[in-house]
Every structure is written in structure tokens, then in C-alpha cells.
Amino acid sequence: MENFPGIDVFRAWLEAHASSVVGRTCSAGLCPLAAFLNETWGGQWCVGVSSYRNGPLEVLDGLPEWARAFVWGLDSGYGIERDVTGQQALGVLQRIEETGGEW
Known about the structure:
Elements lengths: L6 H10 L4 E4 L7 H10 L3 E3 L4 E3 L3 E3 L4 H14 L4 E3 H14 L4
Antiparallel strand pairs: 1-5, 2-3, 3-4
């Protein structure tokens, strides 16, 4: 398994999808990070605030701190089960970078 992609790679992906819905809040399988991993690595990724997995059996710890903060910020900032565009997700990512990972 490769290392989790860096924040710059994720930002570039969001920028390329800025006007599109890239995911849904409070849904590990529809999180923008899950959509990004599905497109980048293939598979059926789910991303939560502490781990990520491909399918039901392959649970991986070691989600980077920025990714944890992103999931938390997205879910708390936009509410339960809301569609999120790439532009909205970029706003969350920018805030995390400006605050050093705090939401």
C-alpha cells in the first residue's frame, strides 16, 4: 500500500473539481477524501476521522493529521449528509492550513 497522498495532491484534485459535487458530509464512503482515493487508487474507499479503508476488511490507521482535520471540519462545518462542491471543500482545506490543523 502506498502512503496516503499529500495535502498538495488533494488540493490539486479539489481545484480540478471545484465546480462539481465531490462528496457528502458525515458519510465515510461519500467523503471527498474517499472520492479522491477512489479516483487515485481505485477501489471503494471510506474515510473517517481516524482511519480509512478499502472495502470491508482492509482498515488502515495512520490517516494524516491534515486529513483528520479536513473530515472533522467538513462534517462540522456543513452539517449532516450535505453535498459538498470542490470549492467548498477547498475552503475547509484552506482554513485548516491557515490555523495549523485546527477547526
